[in-house]
Amino acid sequence: DIKLKLEEELKKQKWISSPEQPSVHVAPHPRITDVLLLPVDGPRPVEQLSSEVVVGAQCGSAVLRGAHVFAPGIIASPKYMKAGDMVSVFSDLEGRCTRGATSFQGNKVFVGNGVAEMDRSAIFATETPARGVGVQMVDPLYQSPSFDGVLPSLVFLQNLPSVVVGHVLAPRPGEWILDMCAAPGGKTCHIAALMGDKGEVVALDRIQNKIDRIRQNAQMLSLQSIKAYCFNSTQAVSDEPKQEAKGPPFPPESFDRVLLDAPCSGLGQRPNMASTWSLKEICSYPPLQRKLFQAAVRLLKKGGVLVYSTCTVTLAENEEQVAWALNTFPCLTLQPQEPHIGAEGMLGAGLSPEQLCLLQRFSPEVNWDQIETTAPLAFRADRDTIGFFIAKFLKT
C-alpha cells in the first residue's frame, strides 16, 4: 500500500513517468520486510555550462542526495547572474572559495545544472541573509528524488545499515529500551515501530535542539512510546540506591536492550565531498566510545542485549572496540545478527575468525568494482551502502 502511495508521490515530482511504466522502480527489500529501496541514477552525462555557481561541500553533498541549492549554501556566482539563468553548480572541496566571489579556480567538483531562482544581488545582500532555494536543480549529476514532505507519517528516509541496526537489536513489545546517542531519531523511531509502540524507548542526546528533532519525528510518525531527554549518556548511570527513575540518570541494570550508536569519525558517510578531519580529531573518538560503552553495560539487565554501531570504517572505532569490550567485560558475549547482509569483521584487532563472523561490516569501497549498475536494485542494495559497523552482545 505504501509502495503504491510512494510511487504516486514520486510521479508528482515527475520522478516516475506512469504507474504502468515507472522510470524508477520502487522495490521492496528481499529480506527486510519494512524496507522500500529507491535507486539513485548517476553519474549521468551532464554537459557543463560556462556560467558557474560555487557552493560549500556540505551543500554539494546535499545536491548529490537530491536537494536543490539553498541560498545560504552559495559561495560564488557570476557577476551578472539573474533569476532564470541556467548555471552549472560546483562544490568547493577545500573551503577556499571567498564568499561573494564571481569565479573560483580552486579544487571544485561539478554536481549538475540548474536554474537560478534569485539575482546575485539578492543572494549576497548584506542587510539580511538570503533564504529559500537559490538554484533549482534541473539536470543533476546524480538523480535522486527529493523527500521533503513526502508521506512524512508513513515513511522515513534512512540508509540501509541504519535500518539493519533496529532489526539486530530485535526489540519486543513491552520492553524498556535505551537509545544512548539518539539524534536525529531515525533508529529510535524504528525501534518503537518494531515494538508495535508498546513498551518504552528512552532516547538521550546532549544537545537540546536534537532532542526537539527526535520528538518532532516521533510525533510525525504517531509514536507514543518514545521518551526523549537532553542528557549526557556517559553520566546516565545513577549511583543512588535502586529506585523508580522516570528520567536520567537511571539505576544500574534498568534496561532490557541498549543501542549505542556511538559518536564516531563518520568516515563511512556517503556522499561526502570532503573530509577535514585531522588525525588528532579521528583519534579523539575511541576514548569517548569506551566511556559510553561502560555506561551501556552498567545500564543493561543481565540477559539483556547491547548493540554497538558506528558509521565509520576505522579498525580503532570498530573491531578494536569489540576486542576491548570482550576483555574488559567478561559478562559480554558476541551474538549472531539477523539479518546479516554485510561482510564479516576486519582482521587486525586480535579477534578469532568465529568472532569476526558474528560482526557485520558494510564496506562499499570493497565492492565498487563488482557492483553491476544494471543489476536489479535488490541485488545491489546490500553492497552499495554507506560504510557502517554493527556488533551485538549478550550480557550474562
Could you describe the 3D structure shown?
With 396 residues, this protein is of the alpha/beta class. α4 packs across α5. The longest helix is centred in the last third of the chain and has 15 residues. The mean pLDDT is 92. One of its GO terms (molecular function) is methyltransferase activity. InterPro entries: MeTrfase_RsmB-F_NOP2_cat, MeTrfase_RsmB-F_NOP2_dom, PUA-like_sf, PUA_sf, RCMT, RsmB/NOL1/NOP2-like_CS, SAM-dependent_MTases_sf. Keywords: Methyltransferase, RNA-binding, S-adenosyl-L-methionine, Transferase.
Brief overview, please?
It is built from twelve helices and 16 strands. The longest helix is centred in the last third of the chain and has 15 residues, at 285-299.
Layout of secondary structure:
Layout: H1 2-12, E1 27-28, E2 36-37, E3 52-56, H2 57-64, E4 69-70, E5 74-76, E6 86-92, E7 108-116, H3 120-123, E8 133-140, H4 160-169, E9 176-179, H5 186-194, E10 200-205, H6 208-220, E11 226-230, E12 255-261, H7 279-283, H8 285-299, E13 300-310, H9 319-328, E14 332-334, H10 353-358, E15 360-362, H11 364-367, H12 377-381, E16 388-395
Parallel strand pairs: 3-6, 9-10, 9-12, 10-11, 12-13
Antiparallel strand pairs: 1-2, 3-5, 4-8, 6-7, 7-8, 13-16, 14-16, 15-16
Helix pairs in contact: 4-5
Summary tags:
alpha/beta, 6-stranded mixed beta sheet
- Strand pairing plus helix content: what structural class? alpha/beta
Give the helix proportion (percent range). Answer: 25-40%
Shape: globular
Mean pLDDT: 92
Helix-strand topology string:
HEEEHEEEEHEHEHEHEEHHEHEHEHHE
Count the DSSP helices.
Answer: 12
N- and C-termini, Cα separation: 42 Å
| Count of β-strands | 16
**Major sheet description:** 8 strands, mixed
Give the radius of gyration. 23 Å
GO molecular function: methyltransferase activity
Family: Belongs to the class I-like SAM-binding methyltransferase superfamily. RsmB/NOP family.
Pfam families: Methyltr_RsmB-F
InterPro entries: MeTrfase_RsmB-F_NOP2_cat, MeTrfase_RsmB-F_NOP2_dom, PUA-like_sf, PUA_sf, RCMT, RsmB/NOL1/NOP2-like_CS, SAM-dependent_MTases_sf
